[in-house]
Amino acid sequence: MDVKEAIKRAKTYVAETFSDEDIIDVGLEEVRRDEDGRHWLITVGFSRASPRLRASRIKENSILGYNPDLPRVYKVVTLSNQDGDMISITNRAVEH
After folding, report:
1. Residue 44, number of CB atoms within 10 A of its CB
2. Separation between Cα atoms, residue 78 and residue 42, nearest integer Å
3. Residue 43's domain is classified under what CATH number?
4. Which residue range forms the structural domain that includes residue 25?
5. Separation in Å, CA 16 to CA 20, 26, 55
């Protein structure tokens, strides 16, 4: 599987897995392969829209495309390089 297909699948898996949590601004952050080349490790970032912010600020900031008021969440999606199956979605630690 090439890198573009891996990225597309990772973003789709994240969007579908967290679809009931009102995630927004889903985007690619990092891409790498593991040492033996068997898996893609793709970091996908997104924000969760709280009901309060969703009603007010998100609409106002939609023109900007990114809402700095919402914290960013990062997930590492591990995909099989052979068939593109999702192996795991894990939290990525962020240094502050």
Report:
1. 26
2. 6
3. 3.10.450
4. 3-91
5. 8, 11, 23
